[in-house]
Amino acid sequence: MIGKIYASPAKALNGLLFDGMTIMSGGFGLSGNPESLIPEIRASGVTGLTVISNNAGADGFGLWMLLETRQIARMISSYVGENKLFESQYLSGELQLELNPQGTLAERIRAGGAGIPAFYTKTGVGTVVAEGKPTEVFEGEEYLRETWLRADLSIIKAWRADPSGNLMFRKTARNFNPEMATAGKVTVAEVEEIVPEGTLDPDCIHTPGIYVDRVLLSTINEKRIEKLTTRSREPAT
């Protein structure tokens, strides 16, 4: 190991996993998923997990792997989507689900990283989202109080890293990943490329290395497309 760099997903997670822990997992749809780390969590056999993620992957991919083995007890997310396993486990009562508006979920994670225990938002006022939550009136408008989200472990995926753990994300993979990096007690980042120290332009770093504890070179980079729509090419005239 040199600096924060670990040789494999298994080594990067060594000593971090335990039953009943809370894990933040980056990704939006199938973009930016920590593809190499999730299979290692599955292989570890830890159970009773609370997982904070925008969604739970898709059939056969991403967090679906942990749903299949019933290692996830509770999801805090914003989108059930096309994941039939996620849907069936929730409807059968196997899986606890705290469904959040997507912007609220992002802000709760950001607040966790920023050390802000609670904030107010109009999103969800007057709906089931507000049930059991305090409200307050500001300037004649009712707002709902939401609380921060933090985790024992954040697993994220980036494009590039240097040995200090500074990260760059590429396009839509820069979704929940940067915020989750700040909100975990320990953050493990898998990356597509590790570059020498001093290579990254400081103005282009999305997540400073102070938030990243361990870095590994990703072993899986499938970059699947969740829904592929094509049309037949029109014949040339």
UniProtKB/TrEMBL annotation:
Keywords: Transferase. GO terms for molecular function: CoA-transferase activity. SUPFAM superfamilies: NagB/RpiA/CoA transferase-like. It holds the Pfam family CoA_trans. InterPro entries: 3-oxoacid_CoA-transf_A, CoA_trans_fam_I, NagB/RpiA_transferase-like. This is CoA transferase subunit A. It comes from Sphingobium fluviale.
